[in-house]
Model the fold of this input.
Amino acid sequence: MAVGKRESSEQLMWVATSDLPRSPGHPFYRKLNQLLGERGFDRFCEELCAPYYAERMGRPSIPPGVYFRMLLVGYFEGIGSQRGIAWRCSDSLALREFLGLKATEASPDHSSLTVIRQRLPLEIHQRVFAKVLSIARERGLLKGTTVAVDSTTLEANAAMKSIVRRDTGEDWTEYVERLAKEAGIVDATAEELRRFDQKRKGKKVPNDDWVSPSDPESRIAKMKDGRTHLAYKAEHAVDLETEMVVAAQVYPANQGDPETLIETIAAAQENLEEAGSEERVREAVADKGYHKAETLTDCQASHVRTYIPERKITRRTWTDKPAGQREAVYGNRRRCRGARSKRLQRLRSERVERSFAHVCETGGARRSWIRGVMDVSKRYLIQAAAHNLGIVMRKLFGIGTPRSLQGSLGALICLVACLAWLVKHLRVLHPCDDAVTAIRLEHSTHCQTAATERAAA
Done:
Protein backbone atom coordinates (compact mmCIF):
# COMPACT_ATOMS: atom_id res chain seq x y z
CA MET A 1 0.00 0.00 0.00
CA ALA A 2 1.38 3.39 -0.99
CA VAL A 3 1.68 6.34 1.40
CA GLY A 4 -1.24 8.74 1.13
CA LYS A 5 -0.50 12.42 0.63
CA ARG A 6 -2.66 15.27 1.90
CA GLU A 7 -4.04 17.29 -0.99
CA SER A 8 -4.90 20.98 -1.01
CA SER A 9 -8.25 22.04 0.44
CA GLU A 10 -9.44 23.83 -2.69
CA GLN A 11 -13.19 23.59 -3.19
CA LEU A 12 -14.46 21.90 -6.33
CA MET A 13 -16.98 23.70 -8.48
CA TRP A 14 -19.22 20.67 -9.01
CA VAL A 15 -19.61 17.67 -6.71
CA ALA A 16 -21.95 14.76 -7.31
CA THR A 17 -24.34 14.13 -4.42
CA SER A 18 -23.28 10.51 -4.44
CA ASP A 19 -19.73 11.64 -3.60
CA LEU A 20 -20.81 13.63 -0.53
CA PRO A 21 -20.09 11.95 2.84
CA ARG A 22 -23.03 10.37 4.60
CA SER A 23 -23.38 9.42 8.24
CA PRO A 24 -24.94 6.21 9.55
CA GLY A 25 -26.43 8.39 12.28
CA HIS A 26 -26.37 8.09 16.03
CA PRO A 27 -28.51 5.27 17.49
CA PHE A 28 -29.97 7.56 20.16
CA TYR A 29 -30.95 10.32 17.74
CA ARG A 30 -32.37 7.81 15.28
CA LYS A 31 -34.62 6.41 18.01
CA LEU A 32 -35.57 9.92 19.14
CA ASN A 33 -36.49 10.89 15.58
CA GLN A 34 -38.56 7.74 15.34
CA LEU A 35 -40.39 8.64 18.55
CA LEU A 36 -41.07 12.22 17.44
CA GLY A 37 -42.11 11.10 13.96
CA GLU A 38 -44.68 8.64 15.33
CA ARG A 39 -46.33 11.47 17.27
CA GLY A 40 -46.27 13.96 14.37
CA PHE A 41 -44.00 16.39 16.18
CA ASP A 42 -42.95 18.36 13.08
CA ARG A 43 -46.49 18.75 11.74
CA PHE A 44 -47.66 19.83 15.20
CA CYS A 45 -44.95 22.51 15.44
CA GLU A 46 -45.62 23.79 11.91
CA GLU A 47 -49.36 24.18 12.51
CA LEU A 48 -48.70 25.74 15.90
CA CYS A 49 -46.25 28.35 14.57
CA ALA A 50 -48.00 29.12 11.28
CA PRO A 51 -49.94 32.19 12.60
CA TYR A 52 -46.64 33.91 13.39
CA TYR A 53 -45.33 33.72 9.81
CA ALA A 54 -46.49 35.37 6.58
CA GLU A 55 -48.68 33.36 4.23
CA ARG A 56 -46.97 32.53 0.92
CA MET A 57 -44.70 35.58 1.06
CA GLY A 58 -40.92 35.72 1.15
CA ARG A 59 -38.51 32.84 1.36
CA PRO A 60 -39.36 29.83 3.53
CA SER A 61 -38.12 30.06 7.09
CA ILE A 62 -36.28 27.45 9.10
CA PRO A 63 -38.85 24.74 9.93
CA PRO A 64 -40.08 25.05 13.54
CA GLY A 65 -39.30 21.38 14.08
CA VAL A 66 -35.64 22.06 13.26
CA TYR A 67 -35.57 25.00 15.69
CA PHE A 68 -36.92 22.95 18.59
CA ARG A 69 -34.67 20.01 17.70
CA MET A 70 -31.62 22.26 17.91
CA LEU A 71 -32.66 23.30 21.42
CA LEU A 72 -33.04 19.62 22.31
CA VAL A 73 -29.50 19.07 21.03
CA GLY A 74 -28.33 21.74 23.48
CA TYR A 75 -29.61 19.64 26.38
CA PHE A 76 -28.46 16.24 25.14
CA GLU A 77 -24.99 17.53 24.24
CA GLY A 78 -24.63 19.71 27.34
CA ILE A 79 -24.22 22.98 25.38
CA GLY A 80 -25.50 26.18 26.96
CA SER A 81 -24.95 28.81 24.25
CA GLN A 82 -26.70 29.10 20.89
CA ARG A 83 -23.36 29.60 19.16
CA GLY A 84 -22.17 26.29 20.56
CA ILE A 85 -25.36 24.54 19.44
CA ALA A 86 -25.09 25.95 15.91
CA TRP A 87 -21.43 24.93 15.63
CA ARG A 88 -22.09 21.42 16.95
CA CYS A 89 -24.97 20.87 14.52
CA SER A 90 -22.92 22.06 11.55
CA ASP A 91 -19.93 19.93 12.56
CA SER A 92 -21.73 16.61 13.14
CA LEU A 93 -23.17 14.56 10.28
CA ALA A 94 -25.24 12.56 12.78
CA LEU A 95 -26.88 15.73 14.12
CA ARG A 96 -27.50 17.00 10.59
CA GLU A 97 -29.38 13.79 9.94
CA PHE A 98 -31.32 14.30 13.19
CA LEU A 99 -32.30 17.79 12.04
CA GLY A 100 -33.36 16.47 8.64
CA LEU A 101 -30.92 18.63 6.66
CA LYS A 102 -30.02 17.73 3.10
CA ALA A 103 -26.42 17.05 2.12
CA THR A 104 -26.21 20.37 0.26
CA GLU A 105 -28.13 22.38 2.89
CA ALA A 106 -26.37 24.54 5.48
CA SER A 107 -27.29 24.17 9.14
CA PRO A 108 -29.06 27.13 10.80
CA ASP A 109 -26.89 29.86 12.25
CA HIS A 110 -27.08 30.98 15.90
CA SER A 111 -28.60 34.31 14.85
CA SER A 112 -31.47 32.40 13.23
CA LEU A 113 -32.23 30.77 16.58
CA THR A 114 -32.43 34.22 18.15
CA VAL A 115 -34.78 35.53 15.44
CA ILE A 116 -37.11 32.53 15.79
CA ARG A 117 -37.09 32.72 19.59
CA GLN A 118 -38.04 36.40 19.47
CA ARG A 119 -40.75 35.69 16.90
CA LEU A 120 -42.45 32.87 18.77
CA PRO A 121 -44.16 33.79 22.09
CA LEU A 122 -43.79 31.93 25.36
CA GLU A 123 -47.15 30.20 24.86
CA ILE A 124 -45.78 28.31 21.84
CA HIS A 125 -42.89 26.94 23.89
CA GLN A 126 -45.32 25.98 26.65
CA ARG A 127 -47.45 24.02 24.20
CA VAL A 128 -44.38 22.20 22.86
CA PHE A 129 -43.51 21.35 26.46
CA ALA A 130 -47.06 20.02 26.93
CA LYS A 131 -46.72 18.04 23.69
CA VAL A 132 -43.76 16.17 25.18
CA LEU A 133 -45.85 15.52 28.31
CA SER A 134 -48.59 14.04 26.12
CA ILE A 135 -46.02 11.65 24.60
CA ALA A 136 -45.09 10.59 28.13
CA ARG A 137 -48.75 10.18 29.08
CA GLU A 138 -49.39 7.84 26.16
CA ARG A 139 -46.44 5.73 27.33
CA GLY A 140 -47.83 5.56 30.87
CA LEU A 141 -45.18 7.88 32.31
CA LEU A 142 -47.36 10.71 33.59
CA LYS A 143 -49.49 10.77 36.75
CA GLY A 144 -49.31 14.23 38.28
CA THR A 145 -51.42 13.77 41.41
CA THR A 146 -48.44 14.25 43.78
CA VAL A 147 -45.84 16.83 42.80
CA ALA A 148 -42.68 18.02 44.54
CA VAL A 149 -41.62 21.66 44.16
CA ASP A 150 -38.16 23.13 44.60
CA SER A 151 -36.09 25.95 43.12
CA THR A 152 -32.53 26.76 42.10
CA THR A 153 -30.64 29.77 40.77
CA LEU A 154 -29.53 30.39 37.18
CA GLU A 155 -26.59 32.68 36.50
CA ALA A 156 -27.71 35.61 34.35
CA ASN A 157 -25.88 36.97 31.32
CA ALA A 158 -24.75 40.10 33.17
CA ALA A 159 -21.79 41.07 35.37
CA MET A 160 -21.92 42.49 38.88
CA LYS A 161 -19.31 45.11 38.00
CA SER A 162 -21.77 46.71 35.54
CA ILE A 163 -24.58 47.40 38.04
CA VAL A 164 -25.73 51.01 38.56
CA ARG A 165 -27.80 52.88 41.14
CA ARG A 166 -31.49 53.08 40.34
CA ASP A 167 -31.85 56.61 41.71
CA THR A 168 -28.71 58.36 40.44
CA GLY A 169 -27.40 56.08 37.67
CA GLU A 170 -23.95 55.91 39.28
CA ASP A 171 -21.83 52.83 38.79
CA TRP A 172 -20.00 51.25 41.72
CA THR A 173 -16.81 53.33 41.33
CA GLU A 174 -18.68 56.63 41.18
CA TYR A 175 -20.79 55.59 44.15
CA VAL A 176 -17.72 54.79 46.28
CA GLU A 177 -16.03 58.05 45.23
CA ARG A 178 -19.06 60.01 46.44
CA LEU A 179 -19.07 58.17 49.76
CA ALA A 180 -15.34 58.84 50.15
CA LYS A 181 -15.82 62.57 49.55
CA GLU A 182 -18.62 62.63 52.10
CA ALA A 183 -16.21 60.96 54.55
CA GLY A 184 -13.58 63.66 53.95
CA ILE A 185 -11.31 61.79 51.51
CA VAL A 186 -10.65 64.06 48.53
CA ASP A 187 -8.85 63.06 45.32
CA ALA A 188 -8.44 59.47 46.46
CA THR A 189 -6.45 57.04 44.35
CA ALA A 190 -7.84 53.72 43.14
CA GLU A 191 -5.99 51.88 45.91
CA GLU A 192 -7.37 54.23 48.56
CA LEU A 193 -10.88 53.78 47.21
CA ARG A 194 -10.58 50.00 47.36
CA ARG A 195 -9.28 50.18 50.94
CA PHE A 196 -12.10 52.56 51.92
CA ASP A 197 -14.69 50.31 50.28
CA GLN A 198 -13.40 47.25 52.13
CA LYS A 199 -13.37 48.89 55.56
CA ARG A 200 -16.64 50.82 55.48
CA LYS A 201 -19.50 49.39 57.54
CA GLY A 202 -23.00 48.53 56.44
CA LYS A 203 -21.98 47.65 52.90
CA LYS A 204 -24.99 46.08 51.18
CA VAL A 205 -26.16 45.76 47.59
CA PRO A 206 -29.98 45.54 47.73
CA ASN A 207 -31.98 44.95 44.59
CA ASP A 208 -34.15 47.97 45.40
CA ASP A 209 -31.13 50.27 44.93
CA TRP A 210 -29.08 48.52 42.21
CA VAL A 211 -29.90 47.22 38.75
CA SER A 212 -28.04 45.83 35.74
CA PRO A 213 -28.41 48.10 32.69
CA SER A 214 -27.77 45.17 30.31
CA ASP A 215 -30.29 42.81 31.98
CA PRO A 216 -32.74 44.82 34.12
CA GLU A 217 -34.89 41.77 34.96
CA SER A 218 -32.02 39.87 36.61
CA ARG A 219 -31.58 40.18 40.36
CA ILE A 220 -28.63 40.06 42.75
CA ALA A 221 -28.64 36.71 44.54
CA LYS A 222 -26.34 34.18 46.16
CA MET A 223 -25.60 31.20 43.93
CA LYS A 224 -25.42 27.57 45.02
CA ASP A 225 -21.63 27.75 45.27
CA GLY A 226 -21.74 30.80 47.56
CA ARG A 227 -20.91 33.47 44.95
CA THR A 228 -23.01 36.63 44.67
CA HIS A 229 -24.17 37.14 41.11
CA LEU A 230 -26.99 38.48 38.98
CA ALA A 231 -29.36 35.56 38.57
CA TYR A 232 -32.81 34.17 37.93
CA LYS A 233 -34.76 31.57 39.86
CA ALA A 234 -35.90 28.35 38.20
CA GLU A 235 -38.61 26.30 39.90
CA HIS A 236 -39.55 22.71 39.07
CA ALA A 237 -42.72 20.79 39.81
CA VAL A 238 -41.83 17.10 39.50
CA ASP A 239 -44.22 14.16 39.37
CA LEU A 240 -42.98 12.03 42.25
CA GLU A 241 -44.26 8.79 40.72
CA THR A 242 -42.61 9.10 37.31
CA GLU A 243 -39.95 11.86 37.80
CA MET A 244 -41.42 13.86 34.91
CA VAL A 245 -41.05 17.65 35.19
CA VAL A 246 -44.64 18.87 34.84
CA ALA A 247 -43.77 22.57 35.28
CA ALA A 248 -40.56 24.56 34.79
CA GLN A 249 -41.01 28.21 35.72
CA VAL A 250 -38.47 31.04 35.71
CA TYR A 251 -38.82 34.01 38.09
CA PRO A 252 -36.65 36.94 39.21
CA ALA A 253 -34.14 35.66 41.75
CA ASN A 254 -35.41 37.88 44.59
CA GLN A 255 -38.90 36.35 44.62
CA GLY A 256 -39.40 34.19 47.69
CA ASP A 257 -40.34 30.54 47.39
CA PRO A 258 -43.72 30.90 49.19
CA GLU A 259 -44.78 33.61 46.72
CA THR A 260 -44.17 31.45 43.64
CA LEU A 261 -45.48 28.09 44.89
CA ILE A 262 -49.12 28.67 43.90
CA GLU A 263 -48.16 29.89 40.43
CA THR A 264 -45.95 26.86 39.82
CA ILE A 265 -48.69 24.44 40.93
CA ALA A 266 -51.19 26.24 38.67
CA ALA A 267 -48.75 25.97 35.74
CA ALA A 268 -48.35 22.25 36.44
CA GLN A 269 -52.12 21.78 36.37
CA GLU A 270 -52.40 23.68 33.07
CA ASN A 271 -49.66 21.56 31.52
CA LEU A 272 -51.38 18.37 32.62
CA GLU A 273 -54.65 19.50 31.05
CA GLU A 274 -52.86 20.55 27.85
CA ALA A 275 -51.22 17.12 27.70
CA GLY A 276 -54.64 15.44 27.83
CA SER A 277 -54.37 14.13 31.38
CA GLU A 278 -57.51 13.92 33.49
CA GLU A 279 -55.59 13.90 36.76
CA ARG A 280 -55.38 16.90 39.06
CA VAL A 281 -52.60 18.03 41.37
CA ARG A 282 -53.83 16.90 44.77
CA GLU A 283 -50.65 16.91 46.87
CA ALA A 284 -47.67 19.29 46.95
CA VAL A 285 -44.41 18.46 48.70
CA ALA A 286 -41.73 21.10 49.42
CA ASP A 287 -39.00 21.94 51.90
CA LYS A 288 -39.32 24.30 54.87
CA GLY A 289 -38.37 27.33 52.78
CA TYR A 290 -41.87 27.25 51.24
CA HIS A 291 -43.72 27.36 54.57
CA LYS A 292 -45.94 30.39 54.95
CA ALA A 293 -49.42 30.61 56.45
CA GLU A 294 -50.86 32.56 53.50
CA THR A 295 -49.41 30.07 51.01
CA LEU A 296 -50.84 27.10 52.91
CA THR A 297 -54.23 28.80 52.97
CA ASP A 298 -54.16 29.35 49.20
CA CYS A 299 -53.23 25.71 48.64
CA GLN A 300 -56.09 24.58 50.84
CA ALA A 301 -58.49 26.81 48.88
CA SER A 302 -57.23 25.13 45.70
CA HIS A 303 -57.89 21.67 47.21
CA VAL A 304 -54.17 20.83 47.31
CA ARG A 305 -52.84 19.03 50.38
CA THR A 306 -49.43 20.31 51.43
CA TYR A 307 -46.50 18.52 53.06
CA ILE A 308 -44.25 21.45 54.00
CA PRO A 309 -42.31 21.24 57.29
CA GLU A 310 -42.07 24.30 59.50
CA ARG A 311 -38.79 26.00 60.35
CA LYS A 312 -39.62 26.25 64.04
CA ILE A 313 -42.93 25.42 65.67
CA THR A 314 -44.06 28.33 67.87
CA ARG A 315 -47.32 29.43 69.43
CA ARG A 316 -49.33 31.57 67.06
CA THR A 317 -52.04 34.16 67.59
CA TRP A 318 -55.01 33.59 65.30
CA THR A 319 -57.39 36.31 66.44
CA ASP A 320 -56.28 38.78 63.76
CA LYS A 321 -55.79 36.21 61.00
CA PRO A 322 -58.21 35.41 58.14
CA ALA A 323 -60.65 32.55 58.54
CA GLY A 324 -59.29 29.17 57.49
CA GLN A 325 -55.61 30.04 58.00
CA ARG A 326 -55.41 28.24 61.33
CA GLU A 327 -56.92 25.05 59.89
CA ALA A 328 -54.51 25.16 56.95
CA VAL A 329 -51.41 25.53 59.16
CA TYR A 330 -52.49 22.90 61.68
CA GLY A 331 -53.55 20.47 58.96
CA ASN A 332 -50.17 20.80 57.24
CA ARG A 333 -48.39 20.31 60.60
CA ARG A 334 -50.41 17.18 61.31
CA ARG A 335 -49.64 15.68 57.89
CA CYS A 336 -45.92 16.43 58.21
CA ARG A 337 -45.73 14.30 61.36
CA GLY A 338 -46.94 11.17 59.57
CA ALA A 339 -44.95 8.41 57.92
CA ARG A 340 -46.25 9.35 54.46
CA SER A 341 -44.74 12.82 54.75
CA LYS A 342 -41.31 11.39 55.60
CA ARG A 343 -41.47 9.06 52.60
CA LEU A 344 -42.53 11.90 50.27
CA GLN A 345 -39.78 14.16 51.58
CA ARG A 346 -37.17 11.51 50.83
CA LEU A 347 -38.50 11.17 47.30
CA ARG A 348 -38.54 14.96 46.90
CA SER A 349 -34.92 15.40 47.95
CA GLU A 350 -33.89 12.64 45.55
CA ARG A 351 -35.94 13.27 42.43
CA VAL A 352 -36.26 17.04 42.30
CA GLU A 353 -32.54 17.52 42.89
CA ARG A 354 -31.88 14.94 40.18
CA SER A 355 -33.95 16.97 37.71
CA PHE A 356 -31.89 20.07 38.53
CA ALA A 357 -28.66 18.10 38.08
CA HIS A 358 -29.77 16.88 34.65
CA VAL A 359 -31.22 20.14 33.33
CA CYS A 360 -28.80 22.67 34.86
CA GLU A 361 -25.51 20.80 35.24
CA THR A 362 -25.21 18.14 32.52
CA GLY A 363 -27.81 19.88 30.35
CA GLY A 364 -25.91 23.19 30.31
CA ALA A 365 -28.67 25.47 31.66
CA ARG A 366 -26.95 26.67 34.85
CA ARG A 367 -25.43 29.64 32.99
CA SER A 368 -27.94 31.58 30.91
CA TRP A 369 -26.69 33.24 27.73
CA ILE A 370 -30.05 34.94 27.12
CA ARG A 371 -31.43 38.04 28.82
CA GLY A 372 -34.90 38.69 30.18
CA VAL A 373 -37.33 36.48 32.10
CA MET A 374 -39.38 35.79 28.98
CA ASP A 375 -36.51 34.63 26.78
CA VAL A 376 -34.86 32.65 29.57
CA SER A 377 -38.21 30.93 30.21
CA LYS A 378 -38.51 29.94 26.54
CA ARG A 379 -35.12 28.27 26.49
CA TYR A 380 -35.53 26.66 29.91
CA LEU A 381 -38.89 25.12 29.02
CA ILE A 382 -37.39 23.27 26.09
CA GLN A 383 -34.50 22.14 28.32
CA ALA A 384 -37.05 20.62 30.72
CA ALA A 385 -38.93 19.08 27.77
CA ALA A 386 -35.68 17.44 26.62
CA HIS A 387 -35.22 16.07 30.14
CA ASN A 388 -38.69 14.51 29.92
CA LEU A 389 -37.88 13.06 26.51
CA GLY A 390 -34.79 11.48 28.04
CA ILE A 391 -36.98 9.71 30.62
CA VAL A 392 -39.27 8.42 27.85
CA MET A 393 -36.28 7.24 25.82
CA ARG A 394 -34.83 5.46 28.83
CA LYS A 395 -38.17 3.71 29.38
CA LEU A 396 -38.55 2.62 25.76
CA PHE A 397 -34.98 1.94 24.60
CA GLY A 398 -32.90 1.72 27.78
CA ILE A 399 -30.81 4.89 27.19
CA GLY A 400 -31.78 8.44 28.08
CA THR A 401 -28.92 10.43 26.53
CA PRO A 402 -26.60 9.94 23.55
CA ARG A 403 -23.69 9.68 25.98
CA SER A 404 -25.24 6.71 27.76
CA LEU A 405 -23.73 4.43 25.13
CA GLN A 406 -20.29 5.73 26.05
CA GLY A 407 -21.01 4.91 29.68
CA SER A 408 -22.18 1.43 28.72
CA LEU A 409 -18.96 0.84 26.79
CA GLY A 410 -16.94 2.01 29.77
CA ALA A 411 -18.86 -0.32 32.08
CA LEU A 412 -18.24 -3.23 29.70
CA ILE A 413 -14.51 -2.48 29.61
CA CYS A 414 -14.43 -2.26 33.41
CA LEU A 415 -16.24 -5.61 33.67
CA VAL A 416 -13.77 -7.27 31.32
CA ALA A 417 -10.87 -5.83 33.33
CA CYS A 418 -12.36 -7.12 36.58
CA LEU A 419 -12.83 -10.60 35.11
CA ALA A 420 -9.23 -10.61 33.89
CA TRP A 421 -8.04 -9.58 37.35
CA LEU A 422 -10.07 -12.37 38.98
CA VAL A 423 -8.76 -15.00 36.57
CA LYS A 424 -5.20 -13.88 37.22
CA HIS A 425 -5.55 -14.11 41.00
CA LEU A 426 -7.48 -17.39 40.86
CA ARG A 427 -4.52 -18.86 39.02
CA VAL A 428 -2.25 -17.69 41.83
CA LEU A 429 -4.49 -19.52 44.32
CA HIS A 430 -4.51 -22.75 42.32
CA PRO A 431 -4.11 -25.95 44.46
CA CYS A 432 -0.70 -26.60 42.87
CA ASP A 433 0.63 -23.46 44.51
CA ASP A 434 3.31 -24.35 47.09
CA ALA A 435 1.91 -22.24 49.91
CA VAL A 436 -1.65 -23.54 49.53
CA THR A 437 -0.37 -27.13 49.22
CA ALA A 438 1.68 -26.75 52.41
CA ILE A 439 -1.31 -25.47 54.32
CA ARG A 440 -3.50 -28.35 53.10
CA LEU A 441 -0.79 -30.94 54.02
CA GLU A 442 -0.44 -29.46 57.50
CA HIS A 443 -4.19 -29.60 57.99
CA SER A 444 -4.33 -33.23 56.78
CA THR A 445 -1.48 -34.24 59.13
CA HIS A 446 -3.23 -32.58 62.05
CA CYS A 447 -6.45 -34.46 61.30
CA GLN A 448 -4.64 -37.81 61.07
CA THR A 449 -2.85 -37.21 64.40
CA ALA A 450 -6.12 -36.34 66.11
CA ALA A 451 -7.76 -39.51 64.74
CA THR A 452 -4.84 -41.67 65.97
CA GLU A 453 -5.07 -40.20 69.48
CA ARG A 454 -8.81 -40.86 69.65
CA ALA A 455 -8.31 -44.51 68.53
CA ALA A 456 -5.62 -45.08 71.19
CA ALA A 457 -7.86 -43.65 73.91
About this structure: The two ends are 86 Å apart (CA to CA). The CA atoms of residues 197 and 310 lie 39 Å apart. The longest strand covers residues 228-239.
